[in-house]
TrEMBL record:
This is Senescence-associated carboxylesterase 101. Residues 81-194 form the Fungal lipase-type domain. Residues 341-543 form the EDS1 EP domain. Keywords: Cytoplasm, Hydrolase, Nucleus, Plant defense. It comes from Solanum stoloniferum. InterPro entries: AB_hydrolase_fold, EDS1_EP, Fungal_lipase-type, SAG101-like.
Length: 567
């Protein structure tokens, strides 16, 4: 999508929202709930049936509720009744939320906990609210998003900003979360702008690190038109401009009636042409921005319009620059599939050469075509490693609940990658003179994490009823243990007394490890190819090995030739 089409779609999407019944149905529940007596309750909520299997949950706050500018930090929330620790990530471990909103939410937490269970598989599920009730609606939506099987839509009307940049960034890290929020704001309603000032900092009461920041999409409305904005800094700039133009500069906020705004907009034919733009030359991107600003009542001859236009344009260009720098995930996935296909081809064509791992190691002694093939494999090996290192690092920044969702979607592919590619990394590691103990000294953290997740996903192991060997050896470090067996067999021959004793202990443990892998069919049959490193180890060091393994099952297995029928 181009910058221009995005800004055109800002108005088109706004028109679609206003002309649909979704906003009107949400506001109807709020109007109905407002007619209920508050008694001593600072906030009310009610569940309304919606369509055949859906629900709208509406929140309204009492007119006597005071909108405070004070925030509460995530550290202060720990151990309280507010269950929002899951929002923190490694990248954004700290966040703050409005104290008034979190206090209202805490007063309902027991009832809302029961409601979460009752909502079950309601679809569609709409969470809505007005003013501080909208803030509580946002908090409840975040709580629902903790469960990956729920995907609510949150629509707020005239809701003040909820939290700081930490909250904004933590939500923006999860695009599926950010897209769940739509905030409807009228330029005549002072409440949404009440936590925004020209500097966005309140004198002395809040530190610079705790200024309020928006998240989600904003449907900004004037009496005559509306438009959607999503880029956070642009939303802040526009709301500050709305503040400057507003006649409401005090804190005596009266409930605003969004029904009139929605009705006016729904029945108004919206058309913008070139003649409605400002009377100077503008590029296409600027024209789109001008249309959106004019739609919400900011434009024309306003003295501050030129700086605002420049700011918004800069924000959008920066946002698009960031998006252009990120490769489309679908393209990335296709590239990974291609790289894996190359490796599968390499495994097949090297079967008669001792297997792909040993073929990879012997490339210096082969034909020019074989060397070229290896170079191609090395290129794809690098591509796959870079991709999975990045993917694992991204997952480590996620909260625990999202890690679980990742494992469901990606762990199978990650396990296949690890079992296919790590043996090549091991071969490369031991090809460098002097390298030892790959598992403890050379193994990449991303392999350790993928293996750890696999074990957590399948703690009892797999293949207990297997009757034939796997195609890919299940333990991706198998070939590292073979290399260490070769090193220790050499020490058993020529090492010091201490080295010989340590080598003997290693070989005994290795022998037990290998026979267990064989009995569970957890190793590929390629390990028994005459030219494989494993068979070379057995042939070259047979007498030394038998001196310490003679009474162990692996020795009987190899000496009796049972490996020849391993298939």
């Amino acid at each position: 999508m181009s910058q221009v089409s995005m800004f055109s779609s800002g108005q088109e999407f706004a028109n679609l929202l206003v002309s649909s019944d979704l906003l009107h149905d949400s506001w109807f529940t709020i109007s109905d709930l407002r007619s209920h007596p508050y008694l001593n309750n600072p906030i009310l909520f009610k569940v309304y049936p919606y369509h055949s299997n859906g629900a709208i949950v509406a929140f309204v706050s009492s007119p006597i509720c005071n909108l405070q500018k004070e925030m509460v930090s995530s550290e202060e929330l720990e151990g309280s009744q507010s269950p929002f620790e899951f929002i923190s990530t490694k990248l954004n471990p700290h966040f703050s939320v409005n104290k008034a909103a979190i206090t209202l939410f805490a007063s309902l937490v027991n009832e809302l906990s029961a409601l979460k269970e009752k909502l079950g598989n309601a679809s569609p599920l709409i969470i809505t609210g007005v003013s501080l009730g909208g803030s509580v609606a946002s908090l409840f939506t975040l709580w629902l998003l903790k469960d990956n099987n729920k995907r609510p839509t949150c629509i707020t009307f005239g809701s003040p900003l909820l939290g700081d940049s930490g909250l904004q960034q933590a939500i923006s890290e999860r695009p599926s979360w950010n897209s769940c929020f739509l905030h409807v704001v009228s330029n005549q309603d002072p409440i949404p702008r009440s936590l925004v000032s020209p500097t966005n900092v309140f004198a002395g009461s809040i530190p610079q690190s705790c200024i309020y920041n928006p998240f989600g999409m904003f449907l900004l409305c004037s009496d005559s038109d509306c438009s959607c904005f999503e880029e956070p800094e642009s939303v802040l700039d526009i709301m500050m401009e709305m503040n400057l133009n507003s006649q409401h500069q005090d804190n005596c906020f009266l409930p605003f009636n969004y029904e009139q705004v929605l009705e006016r907009l729904k029945h108004k034919i919206i058309f913008k042409g070139a003649s409605q733009l400002f009377h100077f030359s503008v590029d296409q991107l600027q024209a789109g921005i001008d249309l959106q600003l004019e739609a919400i009542g900011i434009g024309g001859q306003t003295s501050n319009i030129n700086p605002l236009r420049t700011k918004v344009k800069k924000r959008v260009e920066e946002s698009f620059a960031k998006k252009r720098s990120v490769i489309d995930p679908g393209k990335k996935l296709n590239k990974m599939k291609l790289a894996m296909a190359w490796l599968e081809w390499y495994m097949k064509v090297t079967l008669n050469e001792g297997g792909y791992v040993d073929s990879y190691k012997r490339s210096d002694f082969r034909s020019r075509d074989a060397v070229k093939s290896r170079q191609e494999i090395v290129k794809h090996q690098r591509v796959l490693n870079k991709y999975w290192k990045t993917k694992v690092a991204e997952v480590e920044e996620m909260p625990q609940s999202e890690k679980a969702a990742f494992r469901t979607r990606w762990l199978y592919a990650g396990t296949n990658y690890r079992r296919m590619v790590e043996p090549l990394d091991i071969a490369e590691y031991y090809m460098k003179s002097g390298n030892i103990d790959y598992v403890n000294l050379g193994r990449s953290e991303h392999y350790k994490k993928l293996e750890e997740w696999r074990k957590e996903d399948n703690p009892s192991g797999s293949g207990n009823d297997r009757r034939k060997p796997v195609c890919l050896t299940e333990d991706s470090c198998f070939w590292a243990y073979v290399e260490e067996a070769i090193i220790n067999s050499e020490r058993l021959r020529e090492g010091t007394l201490e080295e010989k004793e340590n080598a003997r202990e290693y070989l005994v443990n290795f022998g037990e490890y290998v026979i267990n892998m064989i009995r569970s069919y957890s190793v590929s049959s390629e390990i028994f190819h005459p030219h494989s490193s494993f068979m070379k180890w057995w042939k070259d060091y047979r007498q030394d090995i038998l001196s310490c393994l003679s009474n162990l099952p692996l020795a009987f297995y190899m000496e009796n030739g049972e490996y020849q029928s391993y298939a």
